[in-house]
Fold these 4 entries.
Entry 1:
Amino acid sequence: MNLPGTYIDGFLLPIPTAKLEEYHLLAEQAAAIWKEHGALHYVEAAADDLSTEFCRSFAATADASDDETVIFAFAIFADRAARDAANSKIMADERLQAICPASANIFDCKRMAFGGFKTIVTA
């Protein structure tokens, strides 16, 4: 996938492993909302191998405990303007507002890391 000039919103968050299936259902709903409002691509991935000896692990970065699974997620947009327009619509979407109370029972938003990124290399 070659996506020069795109803009990416990235997320990193720990989820209680016991609630991973519940989170998966919410993530599927979120993906539909993000795609409907302009995301070109939307990915949510659950950690499988976080062992590393040469750098800080995602588990350490997310401050995940042994009974948590780290989620790495991202949404790709055509550019920053498309992302900003999409996020305005996403945050106002009633379906997202309905998801938020359920998500509070699954994970702590204050522990989620988020950021917007300009694409600098695609291959």
Entry 2:
Amino acid sequence: MKKTNLLAALTFAFTSMNAQDIKLESNAEDVQKYMNTITQEELKGHLSILASDEYEGRETGERGQKMAADYIAKHFMNKGLVGPVKDNPNPYFQQFDLYNQKYTNFTISANGKSAKLFDDIFPYGNFTFKEDVELIFVGFGDSTKTFDDYAGVDVKGKGVIFFQDSPDEYGPEAKVNGLRRKAKYAAEKGAAFAIILPESDEKFNTQTSRYASYLKKGRLTFNKPQKSNEQNSFGLVLGKPSTFMEVLGLDESKFNKAIAKSLKKQESPKHTTFKVSIDAEFSTMRVPTENVLGFMEGTDLKDEVLVVTSHYDHVGIIDGKIHNGADDDGSGTTGVLEIVDAFAQAKKDGKGPRRSILFMTVTGEEKGLLGSEYYSEHPIFPMEKTIADLNVDMIGRGDDAHKDQPNFVYVIGSDMLSSDLHSIHTQVSQTYKSDLALDYTYNEKNDPNRYYYRSDHYNFAKHGVPVIFYFNGTHEDYHQPTDTVDKIAFGPMQNRAQLIFATAWELANRDKAPVVDKEDNGSK
């Protein structure tokens, strides 16, 4: 057994013992009856529509996303859910504007040489310059117990350039959230922008080939960027090492030897200042989009709200190929639609939930969790009355770690804020879906994959709302045009959706909501 799986098994065993302290309060026959209305056939029916070519990959703000929003809203309405957005012509839509910033030109020049957009440089952020600037080499751009690469140098208002990965000499803390931490540190030091160099051209090519198509489509933000001749926020640029050695007039071999010599002396690499000319311009376009909300009012505890989320957007058409997003996150959205059906049938039978339930499929997840961020900052129902968020993002496949055990689900975040929520969920699993293995491998804030921060539940956790993130792991079709319906494992998908329903039922009907008993509010 692999170490990570052993840890997950031990965690499960420990939490299983603790879960015995929690007594489920729901009628087991009711849970079982309505849980079983969630079927493979109906899941496949919805997913075959949402992940079809007709929906063009559901890119945020594009035609396919709008079609999906209409489909989901009509389903909510047909099942008796209420549209809770009172100030909108369509009360099922929470509409807002994003802005797409797309670079039309970007060059960095010196010594008669230039680094060019999407060949040698890939910019991130609202990075706008049209001037000559100072660029300071700051080694690895890091600050640890052993090294401070900014010691003795003033970078305020200037550019910095550094290597992406810190070496072992910088200590173990340099390996944690490296690039994100370095970028934040550069901004705190007052740098206007940072150019990051991978360790080799090969690594640069690998990284950019993976993300080039997305970057070329532009970047969506909430705030309308300033005019393209004005400097606004801190910017990052990923640069091709060999090109920048030419542009800066450096001998790569001698440069690397000098750095190695510094490290041997336990010193940061020496600062070097260059003069470069930057010409960066972009275009801006408004992109209207919408979250889709369906509300089921509760009875005696109706002022408290349980939220069930998924994201219905995907990445659209890239290089002429439709990325259908069957698993990501057509599967989660389809799961939510089926959970709606189960609750709607129960309510029709006179067994509606005690607490209110908000079913919400959000937009803009692939662009940085934007839809859920918008809701969390403009909630229709107060966050302090929101008892939990159950977030469903990719439940239709499996990963390499579970080839021999496809009937599983990764559970992330259940114990981050509330011991109650974690114990309730474990007990629900043991009672109703004991054949579905719960895997806690990624249930760590310091996990290098950072899954706790990478889906929509996180925007609830930031506001102190307990969360559970259901996930099946990544696979070779993740963000590829091959993420199609024919590859979905509808058996495990059904089991996962049924577990989420059973958990939602228990949370919506027990006397007391999960207590938030941990100081950490989910922030980084």
Entry 3:
Amino acid sequence: MNVYLLGYTGSMQRRGVSNTSLAIVAEGRTLLVDLSGSPVQALKEAEIDPATIVGVLLTHTHVDHIYALPSLLHQLWLGGRTEPLALIANGPTVAFAKRLIDLFDLERKKGFFPLIRHEIEEGDLEIGPLSLRLFPVIHGVPTSGLSVRHGGKHIVYLADTAYSRAWPSYIQGADILIHEVGGLSEEEETLAGKGHASARQAAQCALDVKAKRLILVHLPEDPKGDELLLKEAQALFPSTELPRLNIPY
């Protein structure tokens, strides 16, 4: 199992980098997590065949995490997809995604492939070869964190969230923790009020859950601050990395 970052910015994009989204690949099957930019183009940049997608997991309804859903579905339909596609999210996000899909009448198109909706607030799901577990995180709208296991490897994604000491025990020992970062420790009060975390808090979370590696995502618009974020996180958790696009982790 490998995870690819198809984007890694927060709400504001950078030149050449879209909002945070992931592709998790195992045994030739792909799960997309959050959708931004041009998903099919991003997959091709990462040399991932869009035909291998078995599911889409959406963490919440904020624009930067969900806006590219209609584009992805339309592209897959144009490409001749007939295989059902799983759409996974918490209840409010499933409902919002349906409205977004209905806006373009996608499911009424001739020969449109079946969408299988899985509404999960907290619980398990097997998608293709992947074992998923969703759980709520701390944000301004209902938002899901994700634990993924396959073949002895464990990846955890903490999407938009404030820091917590009370994450569920099953995310312990992740090989890779992908954690959002909105700024530095001096901004923690403001960040927490918006449901976000600092670089220091992301590193503390990695320590708390005994992760092996930490990758910072959902970064602020200005890349000049990246090294400061990295330095702050590495002071607590040395195995912290800045994100890189389209490479297998």
Entry 4:
Amino acid sequence: MQRMIRKTVLPNGLTIVTEKTPYLRGAVAHLRFGIGSGHEPFRLWGVAHVLEHMVFKGTPQMDQVEFGNEIARLGCSTNASTGFESTTFEIDGPAETILQGLDVFTELLANFHVPAEEFDKEKDVIQEEWKMYRDDPSAWGEDLAFHSLLGNFAHPTIGSPESIASLTRRQVLEFSQAHYTPDNLIVGLVGNVEHEAVVEVLAKHFGDNPRTCAELRLPPLSQVKVRHEEEDSEQEQVFVGFRAPAILRPDIPAFDTAMTIFGGDSWSRLFQRLRNELGLVYSVDGGYSGWPHVGSYMIYAGCQPAETDRVLAEIVNEIDKFKREISPDELVRSKAMLRSSLLMSSDQLGTKVQKLIDDEVLWGEYRPYEKDINDLEAVTVEQALQLVNEVFDDKLMTRVTVGPHQPK
């Protein structure tokens, strides 16, 4: 079936990509600014996340209660998230009302203000959010692990209690003026909606905005090899991380194939050895995260504190074995699982719109799922092994633990 994908770039640089889906009743739009926590200077840690919150406080003509009521009246819902390299605002709802919802949401994004009293209140809310993450050892450990592996590019998106408290309203407004600009915004929409209608809504609210994005800078990558965070908990959280290929590397399909074998599912080597054979853990897995300039592969396990050293030793042993051999049967299973994941996600609205925007950011054009599947099918055992040995370098390993036991 021919996919109905279209792209328009407004004169001020705002990019709009849509896929019309006449066979679906729902619709999703993502509005992604190319600014995230990884771009923040040390003194402004947390500003991108604070700004994401403040957008929902409304405009001079429409307060946050009116905004929420209008979105609900249309049967739509909104959300937002801040990452290391981007901030994304999302709206979903019925295809028949999504344009009206997008109109309201875009008006908010183009005209939001930062009332002083709401700013102080929201900083208190975010401090409570930080405490929530801090009280979750696995979430806290993951933040520490990424920060240790990749340096300040991957500092906790939420910031720290000190950095949040020190942020001023003026700093947030200046950050917004510098980076929430049309040329730094990509909008994707998937649903039974005409492309021209989407363009009209975006042009209405952003078309006359001439501002351009200030220079974006990423901090140099750095690494902490070993870190332990003392925590009075029943379980030890164990993270073992490695630098991995950047998302633009053409051999990423080979890396995905290999790492699905190693830590991707209940049949993976890590799960079979540490849980099924040894009974050392309840959960263990590995996951890839990638950006245009760097990638990471992070292994996670949760275990009894007394078993921490043994779990770490077994992870290292499995890595050593994996560097020596991958069987053809494992490769076949991994490809089948990844192919299945691609096919199933291609039917999900949220994944479809995310792929539209990701492809635009990374490649400047849409890449059909068929190409992803063909690249996957072409992977050989030799290619997979080569990447395993490139990434699993003992000298470049980061180890982070959170719990009552400090490993040897």
